[in-house]
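Students often ask what a holo structure prediction actually looks like on paper. The answer is less mysterious than it sounds. You provide the chain, you provide the ligand, and the output is a string of discrete structure tokens encoding the 3D arrangement of the protein together with fe (ii) ion.
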Amino acid sequence: MSAKSHSFFNPSRELYYSDVLPALSIAFLNDPDNPKIYTTSVTGLSELKELEDLYIDELNEYTDLLQQKVHSLKLYLEKLKLEKLENYEQRVQYVSNPLKAFGLLRRTHQDWPKWHNYTKSDIGAAKLIAMEQLLAKAPGNDDMMEAYKGMHRIEEVYDLEAADMAKGLLLGKQYDAKMSTAECLALGDYMFNQSEFARAAKWYRLGLYYNTEYSNDVFKQIYGFESDEIRKMFLIARIKGASVDDVPIYLRELSHGPHTPLWKSEKGIPTAYQEGCWGRLPRRRDLTCRYNSTTSPFLRLAPLKMEMISLDPYIVIYRDVLSEHEIRLATDKSNYGVMFDTWTYDADPRIKLERISKGGMLYTKELSVVNKRIEDMTGLNVSLTDELQMANYGLGGHFLPHYDFVNLTRRTTLTRIFETIGGDRQVTVLFYTSDVELGGATLFPKLNITVRPEKGSALIWNNLDHTGQPDVLTEHGICPVIVGSRWTLTQTLAEWDQMFKKPCNTKI
Ligand SMILES: O=C(O)CCC(=O)C(=O)O
Ligand SMILES: [Fe+2]
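The corresponding structure tokens follow.
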């Protein structure tokens, strides 16, 4: 996790306005020493898929070249075989004929060195070099670690069974994807190292269940897992996770299918966070939706669909507020140049809030109309802060619960920066620029509110209460994404920019 050890206040780089603009202070880390991380966004992962496809193309061409070589050598051997003689007499008879003797001399003198050179030739060397260059871009340990953590997060938060995950069954939906023995065992080892012994045991048992005996030596070397070794790891995980007295039970568990629950591994009571992420929180029925045609004069012409989510703190959703064209612009990675891994820091820079995503700042003239729409929806000013912050989440991507306000009374370096740019974050405006197939809801844990991303919607809330104080009830986070590419665009409206818009002591 090397990128993440950097401080937001990295003295080697200037602090840009964009760094403090997004919800909380997001450090866009562009560290040339740091290898690229693919796992943290679906756009990054799609680049890795492209890399794999390129590698496979090269490998295909390389094997074609090797095959051509084998084919040519075989043809040569076949040609010689026709002339192979059994004994001395036959050979004498053969070389007694001057035409044949001459041919033999010519072949061994002229052809052999050429064939030998051909045999020794580095056919495919260029392909090997190309493959090595691709290999240099392969994910490193940090990336692999993020992928393990993402899988762990999905399994844990959504309480998924390893056996279901391995066969592609995610939250009751069957996907066309299966996990191999290698993948099950890799997760087994990871969980073991995290002291998650019951989970590790399940992954080991799955690995054992799907283990294949390979007859090919190379396959054995690369993929071959010793079943005895896996059994041993299962038993160690069980003993470490439970008790040494029950080894006979664990041995029996090994002969059961992967769907049989492990002894004494009943599920715990789901936490409120889990309930929220599953979308099982009861919906409030007392709030209404309506067409808003009053917040700004423009809305009189084009009212927007508004749904109340909470009155205090004030939270609303506007539906269908982005056009397909705007959504395309906002989810086109070419509009962001480099996308950075985003880690978010509290006003106290020592507190690091985990956010697994890639982000970038979007400023295109075309999207300035989105800022205008924000003003129409909120009746407030988007002034200095006219850049919109994009986020795209990756494998198990999430954002731990946090506040968007910085709380100026804390008087830290960060809050002082906010004082120069219009005060605290009065309002957060979050556009969902994609749907998310499974997971990835925005959760307000203190309010028991879950909002599912819906492409084209905007979720808007007031981070400060009507007296201008930070409202801790606005704590919010993002549940891990299970399936889908989650895209968002965020804008925050600064407190003092609303001086002439928002009367004191009133709600927006
Ligand atoms: O994308 C979301 O659901 C929330 C994003 C967020 O909390 C933020 O940008 O501060
Ligand atoms: Fe936030």
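The domain at 282-498 is CATH 2.60.120.620 (Jelly Rolls).
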